[in-house]
Specification:
340 residues, alpha/beta, Rossmann fold, 2 domains, six-stranded parallel sheet, elongated
């Protein structure tokens, strides 16, 4: 039984066909099940652009925080720069836990003050990072005044099962315009079959043999995603995951992986991605150096091996649809705080 009161600052925003909303909303729903008290701060990402509106709401949040007891545990979703500034105003009054969705100085690099981010991360008593690779990276950046818990995989809550028989080919879900590698997919992979789901501008011309099947919200996509394998790749190259977005795969847990597991589709992933070890260890897909190698590997996977992948992915699917990864991570974080 926890001795300290626990408050969750509830923040998720608005559905906009990307993983940012879904991951935050799922975190809110999962933590709701733990029966902590919450303060709704979702105003921070509403469409209302009024500075006065935001100022009033932040003042209201400051007012609510000021009445909380000393040593109350505050759980937030990070990034949340303005909320961190408010919490810092109370110095050491609270114990704090941050559920990390992104490290902005790694994801964007430009126009991000890395020193400010390091200071913000060091403020928290416990950080729930994506995985050990992210933990070690931010430690090297200078985040040393906190304890760490690894999430290992984002959960993915959904209502509609994807139980349709999987057709041949590879599917990819994401922002098509920003996924430059799609323009460079090798012909042997196109011949194997490629289906795309996500936001795409009309001006983007795809290879005529690549099927574009539209954009769906984060709940519906689970039931419509179709392919024998699902591709987790980023950057402009088919030879490796490059650029800022490709390099970020070395440290983050792509929410896309959780979507593919929710849809019960084995994964093709870049071998140097942080989650490649998770995919390989749990035998839910294959890790490849480049996309040209993928087809040869896929053709050597027999029915028995593929069915084993489906069996393994169903086990993890049961965990992510019940929020078990975040629940476990939060409980570990609270235990660390209670012991300190």
């Amino acid at each position: 039984m926890m001795l300290k009161p626990i408050i969750f600052l509830k923040d998720y925003g608005k559905e906009n066909f990307n993983a940012g909303f879904k991951a935050r909303k799922d975190a809110c729903d999962i933590i709701d099940r733990l029966n902590f008290k919450d303060i709704d701060i979702s105003f921070t990402v509403k469409d209302d652009k009024s500075k006065l509106y935001k100022l009033i709401n932040y003042a209201l949040l400051f007012f609510k925080l000021s009445f909380l007891k000393r040593n109350t545990v505050i759980i937030v979703q990070y990034p949340c720069r303005k909320v961190v500034k408010l919490l810092k105003a109370f110095k050491s009054k609270f114990k704090t836990v941050a559920i990390i969705h992104d490290i902005e100085s790694l994801r964007f690099r430009e126009n991000i003050n890395e020193n400010e981010e390091i200071s913000n991360l060091n403020f928290f008593n416990v950080l729930i990072t994506h995985n050990v690779f992210m933990t070690e990276k931010i430690k090297k950046m200078g985040v040393v005044n906190t304890e760490f818990v690894e999430l290992n995989l984002f959960d993915y809550l959904y209502s509609d099962e994807n139980n349709q028989p999987k057709s041949q080919g590879i599917c990819f879900a994401g922002n098509i315009d920003k996924s430059g590698f799609i323009r460079n997919i090798p012909q042997n992979l196109i011949d194997y079959g490629v289906k795309l789901y996500g936001v795409k501008s009309e001006s983007l011309i795809l290879n005529e043999n690549i099927k574009y099947l539209g954009a769906y919200d984060s709940d519906k996509i689970v039931s419509v995603l179709d392919g024998k394998f699902a591709l987790l790749w980023d950057g402009d190259s088919a030879d490796t995951c490059n650029g800022i977005t490709g390099e970020y795969l070395r440290y983050n847990n792509p929410h896309k992986l959780s979507l593919y597991i929710a849809a019960k589709i084995p994964v093709i992933i870049w071998k140097d991605a942080a989650t490649a070890k998770f995919v390989s260890d749990n035998k839910i897909g294959i890790a490849v150096k480049n996309l040209d190698d993928a087809v040869g590997i896929l053709k050597n996977i027999d029915e028995k091996q593929y069915n084993e992948m489906l069996k393994n992915i169903s086990i993890i699917n049961n965990k992510i649809k019940n929020g078990e990864f975040l629940k476990s991570a939060v409980e570990k974080a609270l235990k660390i705080i209670e012991q300190n």
